[in-house]
Amino acid sequence: MIYEFNGLRPVIHESAFVHPQANVTGNVFIGKDVYIGPFCTLRGDWGKIVIEEGCNVQESCTIHMFPGTTVTLKKGAHIGHGAIVHGGTIGENSLIGMNAVIMDDAIIGKECIVGALCFVPSKMEIADRKIVVGNPAKVVKEVSDDMIAWKTAGTELYQQLPEDCRQTLKECEPLREPEPNRPKQEVSLKIWKETKGN
Questions:
Q1: What is the DSSP string of 74-133?
Q2: Of 56, 59, 77, 55, whose CA–CA distance to 21 is shortest?
Q3: Which residues, 6 or more positions from 123, have their beta carbon under 8 angstroms from its beta carbon?
Q4: Which residue stretches belong to region Disordered (predicted)?
Q5: What Cα–Cα distance (Å) separates residue 170 from each residue in 14, 60, 160, 164?
Q6: What does the pLDDT look like over 143-193, one tens digit per residue?
Q7: Coil, strand or helix: which one is 43?
Q8: Residue 54 backbone zone (phi > 0: left; psi -120 to 50: alpha; other: beta)
Q9: In this predicted model, what pLDDT tens digit does every residue of 48-75 receive, in sequence order?
Q10: CA-angle at 114, arms to 68 and 16, nearest 5°
């Protein structure tokens, strides 16, 4: 659902995919190859939301802000299922874990990894390439080259997803039993511990 609000209409690049069950309202800019999953709410009613090229905002995320402020997801930012970004800035190629909360005027640097369920308080600034966990958030170590390569590979899957959705996603009636020779799905990325260790 795409809504104009107070004379401001969302601007969405033609290569992006916004799921029909997502809600995008008002002063929102969605860039090239961005994926917005179902049940996301991007509410640009009181301020501006900028989602740069190659970002993904996964299922049930909320993006909002205090009046007159801007939320920015920089190029390649990866926002995990159920996360909330309220008035923060997410750096280029950073990952925000599932159900994490980023509060107003927080700044997450480039190539950071914010853990699942982490709470980043208002005005906290995280330098580039840091791993952040906990409630409240605490920097625990540096992001390695291997770790950022793994994160980037995961984001690349989401950058392909908009086109895959345009080509193959369609409403359907369910089968009543599995068909013979049902295709197997490939393992295109493994979880971090399986892939690289701790």
A1: -TT-EE-TT-EEES-EE-TT-EE-TT-EE-TT-EE-TT-EE-TT-EE-TT-EE-TTEEEE
A2: 59
A3: 103, 104, 105, 106
A4: 172-198
A5: 18, 20, 17, 11
A6: 999 999 999 999 999 999 999 999 999 999 999 999 999 989 888 888 887
A7: strand
A8: left
A9: 999 999 999 999 999 999 999 999 999 9
A10: 60
With the C-alpha atoms ordered 44, 116, 153, 40, is the resulting torsion angle positive or negative? negative
User: Residue holding tokens 């700044």?
Assistant: 107
| φ and ψ of 161, to 5 deg | -60, -40
Q: What tokens were used for 156?
A: 């690349």
Cβ–Cβ under 8 Å, residues 35 and 53: no
Does the pTM surpass 0.85? The reply is yes
Q: List the structure tokens of 151.
A: 């994160």
Contact of 39 with 22, CB cutoff 8 Å: yes
